[in-house]
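Researcher: Structure for this, please.
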Amino acid sequence: MPRLASWVKGANEPDTDFPLDNLPCGVFSVNGGKPRCGVAIGEMVLDVSAAEEAGVLRPAEAPVFDVPFWNGFMELGPEIWAAFRSALMQALAESSPQRPELEPFLVPMSTAAMHMPFAVAEFTDFYAGRNHAFNVGSMFRGPENALPPNWLHMPIGYNGRASSVVVSGTDIRRPWGQLKSPDHDMPAFLPSRRFDFELEMGAVVGQPSQGPVSVAEADEMIFGYVLLNDWSARDIQAWEYQPLGPFQAKATATTISPWIVTKAALEPFRTSTPEREKPLLPYLREPGPMLYDIALEAALAPAGRPETVITRTNYAEMYYSAPQQLAHHTVSGCPMRVGDLLGSGTVSGKTRPERGSLLELSWGGKEPLTLEGGESRSFLEDGDTLVLRGHARGDGYRIGFGEARGTVLPAIDKPGWA
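Model: Predicted structure, token format:
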């Protein structure tokens, strides 16, 4: 049984992603209707937009769920977040007298189409997993020079594209780009041949900032977390990234899971970042545990074939936490906005089965994977579906994220390009 029992169908099953302890935030629609804000509970979605409109739920004096995203609610701040969560937990608890009021606003999750849960203001992707950074650096520079000199001193990141962040279930079109072969002086313009996934977590910023913030303040600003797949064209990246880093190779799409698991739901699973190989500067030091024990996996399914789980790892492998990343982001004076999204960087463990990208799993294509159906993969092929899953497990319950799923479609055939 979950730690907290509910009257909602499916909420007390030990393997549900969405027990009463979770209550993640998303946006859904039914039968092509208007997208609405909802909270996942068991096998159902609580339509908080309709409940607010009916006066059953009212987190603020003015409506905040009259739009199809959670940004307005996030703007209300941590005290309102906590009060609303507490009110929902009481209303959905097993013996709650509010059951007759809320039951009409429950929608079967099986009938719901999911949409982006928040309006993404900006997207920043980090490179904050030590094992991933060491593996990639070893491939290109050798183990002795794997980590750049600055890597152990600060979380490395780059500004990505908010416009290409998409919700789970969105198909991903293989990108075109310039590819450079060492055997030719001129690059060729072709569809990417080394298209890849990156298994990441995304932190959703729920409060704005003006000027630098501390790690502790940054932690308070984070509303919740999503699964994140930062699709990557490795061959495009190899030609373009010097001297300024990723650009088109990372601009195709970033897929997130449809449910924002709130930071409050993850509190029991806090864990510490690893022991530092070099001391961090004071502004990056953490006042307490800032990571979470979240089991992660990636599965690959060729078109018409069963899936193979190709990696299992844990968010606790990160070298830098999301609050550290957010604090570092602000030190230049960069304002953060409600709805900013921070990608953790690829989450990889120390062994091959824990690597969070095909670049690492196939070691740059030199060691192809064999899938359960007998197919081999070095990088993603057209028709492949890539699925990320994650959960934190408690005593008799789990806090799940659902899925971040995307299928690779062939590149657009545009006359005159090739």
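Researcher: Any notable elements?
Model: The chain has two domains: 25-115, 123-409. Residues 266 and 352 are 28 Å apart (CA to CA).
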